[in-house]
Every structure is written in structure tokens, then in C-alpha cells.
Design goal:
- The complex is a heterodimer of chains A (114) and B (111).
- In chain A, strands 2, 4, 5, 6, 9, 10 and 11 form a seven-stranded mixed sheet that branches. A four-stranded antiparallel sheet of chain A has the order 1-3-8-7, with no helix packed on it.
- Chain A has no helices and eleven strands.
- With 114 residues, chain A is mainly beta.
- In chain A, 0% of the residues lie in helices and 49% in strands.
- Chain B has 111 residues and is mainly β.
- Chain B has no helices and ten strands.
- In chain B, the strands form two sheets. Chain B has a five-stranded antiparallel sheet, with no helix packed on it. In chain B, strands 2-10-9-4-5 form a five-stranded mixed sheet, with no helix packed on it.
- Chain B is globular and about 45 Å long.
- At the A-B interface, β4, β5, β9 and β10 of A face β4, β5 and β9 of B.
Chain lengths: 114, 111
């Protein structure tokens, strides 16, 4: 199993550009989520999904959109990039509710917005 | 979901020594999870301890949980250079489907 994969690994955007960060998992996990991590800080939840067709907002959803059309894929869209969105983005998945199951994380996408 | 608070913020030890870090949380939990993050990498799950467990071991890792004090500790024994990383705790309550992470404890193991 590849686990959780993310592409691209690195990306530089200009302010106002849009892009999609890709996330895929091959473990048939129902739960998927997107976090961002800024220097010296923990991870903050952006959006999450409890199954195909179901998404919801996390702590810092503004400026981001998600969709979940399949169990495997959970892309994160930046609508109009801003320098404040410079961060490292992690996708994670789990078999079920975190009250019972651990999360598996991807390797991250390092995004710089100039 | 609730965020755990790790203490200390940073820890520097000699190779071969033990490292202990603590986690406190605020409300009742179903389980508490510990994760490791090596520099520039994704988080890796280490241990999940359930609320009815007091201690759990995995290799050189020992986790304790005291639900009366709402705290947990992670002990790494006989540390190695590869243990240099940030460590995060994540308390999970009933019905949670997402985790919240604090700033973590940064451990540096000196050769």
C-alpha cells in the first residue's frame, strides 16, 4: 500500500492564483482531513470529510474549498492564493472516528505564496 | 475535539538517556494518541492509549495515562539520534472524527 500520497511536494504561487493540492489514500479509509502547519506551531484543521460526498469545515476554512467525490481522493483547492496561506499542508486519513482509530498522514506539500 | 498541551516545549538529551514529555487536556476522552514528526516530514502515529488503560508500551516507548489528572506522559528510553523530532499528543473524545494538535515537544538527541 502507498498509504496517503500528496502532490505536489513543493509549489510556489503568486498572490491571486488558484491551485489544487491533491491527496489520495489506498487504505479504503472513510475519514480524511486537511491540516496546515505554520512554523513553530501545531497543526490546524482546514476541512475534513467523513465519507464520499460529505465534507465539513475545520478551524481555518477560509480561502479553501474541498470536495470528496470518491473514497480515495480528497483535493484541497485554494481559490485565490494569499501570502497568509504560505504553509505546509498535510492530508490525513483514518479508518473511522478518531475516538477509536489513529490517523495516517501524507508527506506534506510545502506552499509558498509570493 | 480538544487540543492537548505538551510540556516541555523543548528537550535536549544525550544519546542513551531517557526523555519524558507530558500532555494535559481539559475534558474526558475516549483515547489519547501520540505522534512523532521528523523535520520536514508528515506525522507518524506512535501509540494510542484508551481511557480504560493506564500504561502502554511499544518498543522503547512507554505511555501512561491518568484520567483523574487529565494527563499523559510519553517516555522514550535509551534515546537515539533518530528520536530527534517533535512529539504531539492528541486527545480524542467520543464521536470525534478529527484531531487537534498543540505546538508539541521538540526533542533533540545529542551524540
Amino acid at each position: 500500500n502507498a498509504g496517503v500520497t500528496q502532490t505536489p511536494k513543493f509549489q510556489v504561487l503568486k498572490t491571486g492564483q488558484s491551485m489544487t493540492l491533491q491527496c489520495a489514500q489506498d487504505m479504503n479509509h472513510e475519514y480524511m482531513s486537511w491540516y496546515r502547519q505554520d512554523p513553530g506551531m501545531g497543526l490546524r484543521l482546514i476541512h475534513y470529510s467523513v465519507g464520499a460526498g460529505i465534507t465539513d469545515q475545520g478551524e481555518v476554512p477560509n480561502g479553501y474549498n474541498v470536495s470528496r467525490s470518491t473514497t480515495e481522493d480528497f483535493p484541497l483547492r485554494l481559490l485565490s492564493a494569499a501570502p497568509s496561506q504560505t504553509s505546509v499542508y498535510f492530508c490525513a486519513s483514518s479508518y473511522g472516528s478518531t475516538s477509536s482509530y489513529e490517523q495516517y498522514f501524507g508527506p506534506g506539500t510545502r506552499l509558498t505564496v509570493t | 475535539s480538544q487540543q492537548g498541551e505538551e510540556d516541555p516545549q523543548a528537550l535536549s538529551i544525550q544519546e542513551g538517556e531517557n526523555a519524558t514529555m507530558n500532555c494535559s487536556y481539559k475534558t474526558s476522552i475516549n483515547n489519547l494518541q501520540w505522534y512523532r514528526q521528523n523535520s520536514g516530514r508528515g506525522l507518524v502515529h506512535l501509540i494510542l492509549i484508551r481511557s480504560n488503560e493506564r500504561e502502554k508500551h511499544s518498543g522503547r516507548l512507554r505511555v501512561t495515562l491518568d484520567t483523574s489528572k487529565k494527563s499523559s506522559s510519553l517516555l522514550i528510553t535509551a534515546s537515539r539520534a533518530a528520536d530527534t523530532a517533535s512529539y504531539f499528543c492528541a486527545p480524542a473524545s467520543s464521536g470525534d472524527y478529527k484531531l487537534s494538535f498543540g505546538a508539541g515537544t521538540t526533542v533533540t538527541v545529542r551524540a
